[in-house]
Amino acid sequence: MEKVCAVPYRLGRAGAEVLAFRHPLAGRQFVKGTREAGERSCEGARRELFEESGVWLETEPVLLAEALIGVPSLRWIIHAWETKSLPDIWDHWTEDGGGHLFSFFWHPLNVDLDEDWHPIFHETFRLIRATLPKVIGQQNT
After folding, report:
1. Contact call for residues 103 and 21 (beta carbons, < 8 A)
2. From the first residue on, what is the mean pLDDT of each consecutive set of 10 residues in the chain (141 residues)?
3. What is d(CA 81, CA 117) in angstroms, rounded to the nearest whole number?
4. 3-state SS of the chain?
5. Which CATH number fits the domain that encloses residue 95?
6. Are 99 and 122 spatial neighbours (Cβ–Cβ below 8 Å)?
7. Which domain holds residue 124?
8. Of 29, 43, 99, 117, which sits most exposed with the smallest number of CB within 10 A?
């Protein structure tokens, strides 16, 4: 089983911010889910983003990283999209897990995650933080 993780990001005065949400039962998270059979990882990340946030991004994402994360280790494939028109905050009702209201916000790339984040997302954020600035630098050259 593989996980796909969708990381929309935006650039602002304070630097890069990545999209995250508060799950009503499981704390703060990044958008992620299980890759479906026969699905390209970028398609899975786009689908998970839509299912969990209501956001559909047409552009092709950039592959940020592939890594074994968690215990037991699962292969995570992380994709990123630059965005410019998403709101600062919003809520989205998702059918995941019987239905939940997810509250979306932007997390600054230069701010560490706190204890409200599951350890698996700390691992994921270290990868995002290490790779996203390189992608941003390439896109701005």
Report:
1. yes
2. 97 92 96 97 97 95 96 97 96 90 97 96 97 86 55
3. 22
4. CEEEEEEEEEEECCEEEEEEEEECCCEEECEEEECCCCCCHHHHHHHHHHHHHCCCCCCCCEEEEEEEECCCCEEEEEEEEECCCCCCCEEEEECHHHCEEEEEEEEECCCCCCCCECHHHHHHHHHHHHHHHHHHHHHCC
5. 3.90.79.10
6. no
7. 2-139
8. 99
Euclidean distance between CA atoms 141 and 129, whole angstroms: 19
| Full-model pTM | 0.94
- Amino acid (one-letter) located at 92: H
Q: Which residue has the tokens 């969990």?
A: 52
Q: What tokens appear for 103 in the block?
A: 């509250």
Number of domains in the chain: 1
Distance CA 96, CA 88 (A): 23
